Amino acid sequence: MDVVVTHNLTKAYRLGGVEVLAVNDANLRIHKGEFAAIVGPPGSGKTTLYHLLGGLETPTSGTVEINGMELLSLPDTQQGIFRRQTIGYTSQDVHLTPSLTAEENILMPTLLDAQAADAESLMELSGFLGLEDLLKRLPSELSDEQKQRVALARALIRRPSILLADEPAGHLDKPAAYEILRLLLEANQRGQTVALFTQCPNYAGVCQRILVIEDGGTLIEVRKGGGACSPSQLH
Fold it and tell me: Residue 215 pairs with which residues in a beta bridge?
């Protein structure tokens, strides 16, 4: 079963009267339960592709389907609800609300839909991500790695169909970066579908499938990744 499908997905910008392709005619499938990597250098278009798959930007042409639903076919208000219920997002910039505790930040997606806090999911995620003793702290009281853990918990609280992770370890030192990658790998092994957007081939190597986005926005599937790495092997 395919969780994400794109058809001839294209995003073009005009800079100084010149059309620049950020994503060029991308046809992509991400399968249920997969850990896929989209790899490319800065400026290659991978963050634009992240935004397009997450419904955060509108393509110039082409379509994005999540669980068989074309994102642009929904009215704007329903798009927001659909995204919160089916897509988890985490990135290098965690965008935690400074005045809210870690717990309140994690629960924000449920509160936006006026739903009761999911205490069971909160406690399960807190244990898995090592946040039990940090839930009452403000973001200013957390390390960069701890903030990324909170952002990951926020992305997973609704049990999304797909987790989109754009350079989630990009600003961390090596031990912290590998710890975040280990958590993503473990989340996948617990059944979560994950798409990792990164410029680091070493990070991509633990994924089951690797695609490269080249300068000019062309997406190419290059090879299978390691895919068999256990979380304990990442240090």
Answer: none
User: What's at 151, amino acid-wise?
Assistant: A
Calculate the CA 51 to chain-centre distance: 10
**pTM for the whole thing?**
0.90
* 16-67 pLDDT per residue, tens: 888 889 999 999 999 999 999 999 988 889 999 999 999 999 999 999 999 9
| 10 close to 26: Cβ distance less than 8 angstroms | yes
For 14, the enclosing helix (H) or strand (E) is strand 2-15
Q: What is the Cα–Cα distance from 101 to 64, expressed in whole angstroms? A: 34
Q: Is the dihedral of CA 60, 68, 219, 180 positive or negative?
A: positive
Identify the CATH number of the domain defined by range 2-229: 3.40.50.300
- Which helix (DSSP H) or strand (DSSP E) does residue 53 occupy? helix 46-53
Task: Enumerate the domain spans of the chain.
Answer: 2-229
Strands 162-166 and 87-91, bridge-based pairing: parallel
pLDDT in tens, 189-235: 999 999 999 998 888 888 999 999 987 788 887 766 555 444 445 54
Q: How many Cβ atoms sit within 10 Å of the Cβ of residue 23?
A: 28
Amino acid sitting at position 228: A
Q: Which of 70, 59, 56, 1 is nearest to 25 (CA)?
A: 59
Half-sphere exposure of 135 (CA within 13 A, CB side): 18
Report the amino acid identity of residue 234: L
Terminal Cα distance for the chain, rounded: 32
